[in-house]
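Tutorial handout. Part one gives the primary structure; part two gives the three-dimensional structure as C-alpha cells.
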Amino acid sequence: THNSFSAADSPGWFISNQRHPIARQLEDGIRLFLIDPHWGVEAGRGRVRTDFAGEKRDRNRVAKGLPPAVLASAQQLAGRLGAGDATGERDVWLCHSVCELGATRMLDSLEEIGEFLEANRGEVVILFIEPYVSPQEIEKVFASSGLDRYVVTLDRNSPMPTLGELVSRNRRVIVFTEKDADGTVPWYLDGFSYVQDTPLGATKVSELSCKRERGDADSPWLMLNHWADLFPPRRTPNAPFQTRREILSRAHECARRRGVPVSLIAVDHYDQGALVEAVEELNGERIQALRRAQAAARGG
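Part two.
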C-alpha cells in the first residue's frame, strides 16, 4: 500500500490513500508498506503540526507545492503550517507531505506490525521508507517498538534469501529507505539498490509504463507503482487499476520487458479491487515455475 498510514478509518485524516489502517491491512493480506516518517508536534484536539525546522525543510516551499484548496483546508484545520506556536515535545509521525493533513504516530504503527508478526510466525513484512528524519531516529523508534528484533541485514552482493529462510531465522522485516542509507544502521537498506521500480505520474491505466524509473538494471526486485497519481488521492480513479486482469497483464508485461519477475506492487485504495487475489495468482505461477525447474533439474 502506498502511503499505508494515510487511512480514512483513522482519526484525524483529512486526505487518505487507503480506507483501512495498517492493522487491518495486515489482516487483509498486505505485506508491503510505503511509509513517510516526519517530525511533528502535537497541538491538541488530535492535531499535529509539522516540525519543518527539525526536518530542515522550507515550510513556504512545501506550502506552494500543495494544491490551493488542500492548503486552505489544512490551515483551516490546524492553522499555519509548521510547529510555530505549538508546545510539547516533537515525535516521529507518519504523514503525507505535511502532518496537518493527518498523522499517525510511527511507534504505534510499528507496534501493530510487531503484534501481527508475533501472532503469525510464518509472515514476512517489507517497509519502504521515504524519510524526513535521520536513520538514527528511525532506529530509535524501531527499538522502542520492539520491531528491531525482527529486522534483517541483507548483503547486496549475495543471493537474496528466500521467504522460508527469513522465517527460519525469525528475521521477518525488511526495511528499505529511499535515501540516507549511510551504513550507520546496518538493516536500514538502500532501497533502490535492491529494488527497481516503474514510473510515477500515471493518472489512468493507459498511462502506465514498464520503463525503469529508479534503481539499477540489475536490482533484484521489481516494484510496480500501480496507482492513479492524483493529489488529493481519490478512490474512483483507482478502480480501473485494481482489476484482476489489469494487475496480471501488467505484471506479466513488465516482467517480460525488464527481465525481472515482479516482486512488489504498490497501490492506493487496495480494498476496492482484486489486488490480493491477483497477487496470490502471480505467486502460484511462480511456485509452479519453480517446481517445473526443479523437476527438470532432477531429470523429469
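Part three, for discussion. The two ends are 40 Å apart (CA to CA). Residues 177 and 225 are 16 Å apart (CA to CA).
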